[in-house]
Amino acid sequence: MLHSCHLLFICFSFLARFSNAQSNQFKGTKNYEGSSNLLDLQYHMGPILTSPINLYIIWYGNWNPKDQSTIKDFLYSLSSSSSVSPSTFDWWQTVRLYTDQTGSNITESISLSGEFIDSRYSHGKFLTRLSIQSVIKSSLDTLYRPLPLNYNNGLYLVLTSSDVQVQDFCRAVCGFHYFTFSSIVGATLPYAWVGDSGAQCPGVCAYPFAWPKYSGMPSGNKNIMGAPNGDPGIEGMISVIAHELAEVSTNPFVNAWYAGNDPSAPDEIADLCVGVYGSGAGGGFVGHVYKDKMGNGYNLNGVKGRRFLVQWVWDPIKRSCFGPNAIQ
Ligand SMILES: *[C@@H]1O[C@H](CO)[C@@H](O)[C@H](O)[C@H]1NC(C)=O
C-alpha cells in the first residue's frame, strides 16, 4: 500500500461494522481470491526492482535483539532457497513473476546490507509521512557508521518501535511504501515504513494474532491465533513487511504495477490479498494454514526452523491471490 488504506478492517468503514456480530466483521474485506475478472491490474511502464536489492534497516526507537532477530530471520528467509517447503523463498517467487518493459523479472536476491539504530528517536515519538524521510536522511548523515546512499539498488526500511506514533498508523495504515524526495534525502530512493502495532492497535495491524477491539468477540480469546515467534506485534509486522516489500518491488515509483485508475490510491499486488493467508480465505477466515505444536498459526517456513504467517499476493499468471501453502 502506498498511502491509502490496505488494512483488513479499515478499508470498509471499520467503526460502524465493529458493533455488528462477529460473523459480519469482514464482509467488506476486499478478497479477490479466484475472482480474476473483476480486476484490472496493469503495468504502467515504469521501473521495478530487477537488480539484487540491498536492504537497509533503520530501527527507530526502542528495539530488543530478540525482536530484531525475528524480523531479520524473516528477511534472510526471502532469499534462502534451502528452507523447508512451503517456504518464505517460495512465497517470494510469486512476486518474481512481475516483469518490466524489458522482460526482466523482480530480483531473486534481497540482502540485508546495513542497519542503523536510531535509539534516540532523532525525530521524536510522533512521525509524519514526510518526517520518515527525514529519519532516512539522518541515518545517511550520522557520523558514526552512516548507511550508504545507494541509489543504484538500495531499499530503505524504517521500522518503528511500539511506542512510536506515525501519521495514519492504526487508522488508515499499518505500513506504507513510497520514494524519497531529493529535497529531503538528496536522492529518489524507494523506501517502506512498518510500525510495531503491539501497544497501539494489534487488533488492526497484527490480526489474526490479536482481535479488534469492539468486535464483539466473547472474552476468553479462544479464536485468537497464537504467534509462531511469540509476539503478536512483531509477527504482525512481518506480514506487513512482506506486503510492503512485494509492493515496493513491483511499484517502487508508483508508475508500474497496480490496479485502479488513480495512481495516488492504487491497489497494488498485496493490497489485493489482505487477509488471505491460505486456500479458502474469506469472510473473516484467514484460509487454511498450519498449526505448530503449541497451536500457533503459520503458513511459511524460513531459516533456522523459523515459521511465519504471511499474507498472499496477487499472482499475475493464475490471476488470483496465491501462496506456496495453497491446497492444490
Ligand atoms: C518472469 O516472469 C514471467 C512472466 O510472469 C514468468 O513466466 C517467469 O516464470 C518469471 N521468471 C522467474 C524466474 O520467476
UniProtKB/TrEMBL annotation:
Record's subcellular location: Secreted, Extracellular space, Apoplast
Family, per entry: Belongs to the EXORDIUM family.
Signal peptide stretch: 1-21
The protein's name: Phosphate-induced protein 1
Domain of life: Eukaryota
Keyword Hydrolase in record: no
InterPro entries, sorted: EXORDIUM-like
Keywords in alphabetical order: Apoplast, Secreted, Signal
Presence of the UniProt keyword Ion transport in the record: no
One Pfam family from the record: Phi_1
GO cellular component: apoplast
